[in-house]
Design brief:
Layout: H1 20-33, E1 39-41, H2 47-56, E2 63-67, H3 71-78, E3 84-86, H4 90-104, H5 110-122
Helix pairs in contact: 1-2, 4-5
Amino acid sequence: MAERHTACRIVRFAESRENDDRAGDLAAQALAAEDGLVGIYNASAGGMKVAQAIKRAGRSDVVYITHELSEQRRAFLKAGQIDTLLDQEPATEIAIALSVIARYFGRVDDFALAILCMDLHHMR
């Protein structure tokens, strides 16, 4: 990041230990302590608590990125409380991994791969 975005720096790293309330508290602390804070990335639990901490701080200028598209997070995304959601699709990830392995070893043709991908997609 330092090479490509020289004006940006990580000012704080915190571990929520998969605790929603702790994630919200850590976000609130960072928002209070760092005047120049422009973004928060949350890769763990507590996504909604972080969004609420940003709103309570009156910091709609902070870019908030988190994971997993749920109905609640979709509503926060539409309301502008979450700027970006990184949604994971395990079935697609499995299909991609298997296709890379199968192609590497020459064990699958394109037709078989398409069927495999469709079957994995329907497992969701």
